[in-house]
């Protein structure tokens, strides 16, 4: 078992909450972010659990297991019902912003390390040099792309 912050993690601490088929055969950051959005934004009508959040586990095809971490996802290895290793391989953050003018929701996935830098005071253009000005504006003000076009 793995001890994290003084707690032992065991698969016995978890219960199956929902199953559904996915079409993607390749596990990517985008697939995991889509699953995260599905259970936080567009929840299935027949889903009765809580929103997907930190410490939940996503199991894909009974072979791949991902721990929902504070910033992104951590691949975990499970043997004999015990979590024996955790490898933080994907650190992306899905950000949801609601436009203060029209109410439209915009979702942006960013690198978790970059997001942490921005939250700790790095200028946004330095934290996210790969994002365009409109994407950064969504993060700063929440203005959707349509409203930005009208305002600026």
Query: What's the Cα radius of gyration?
Result: 18 Å
Give the count of helical stretches.
5
Please write the string of helix (H) and strand (E) elements. Answer: EEHEEEEEEHHHH
Distance between the termini: 54 Å
Uncertain stretches of 5 or more adjacent residues? none
Per the principal axes of the C-alpha atoms, what is the gross shape?
A: globular
- Helical proportion, percent range: 25-40%
User: How many E strands?
Assistant: 8
Main sheet makeup: 4 strands, antiparallel
Q: How many domain regions?
A: 2
Beta-strand residue fraction: 25-35%
The largest sheet has its strands arranged as: 3-4-5-6
Structural class: alpha+beta
Notes on the structure:
This protein has about 150 residues and is an alpha+beta fold. The protein folds into two domains: about 1-90, no CATH class; about 90-150, no CATH class. Helix content is about 25%, strand content about 30%. It has helices spanning about 30-40, 110-120, 125, 135-140, 145-150, and strands spanning about 1-5, 5-10, 55-60, 65-70, 70-80, 80-90, 90-100, 105-110. The strands form three sheets. Strands 3-4-5-6 form a four-stranded antiparallel beta sheet, covered by helices on one side. The chain has a two-stranded antiparallel ribbon with strand order 1-2. Strands 7-8 form a two-stranded antiparallel sheet. A hairpin with a 2-residue loop joins strand 1 (about 1-5) and strand 2. The longest helix has 10 residues, at about 30-40. The chain is globular and about 55 Å long.
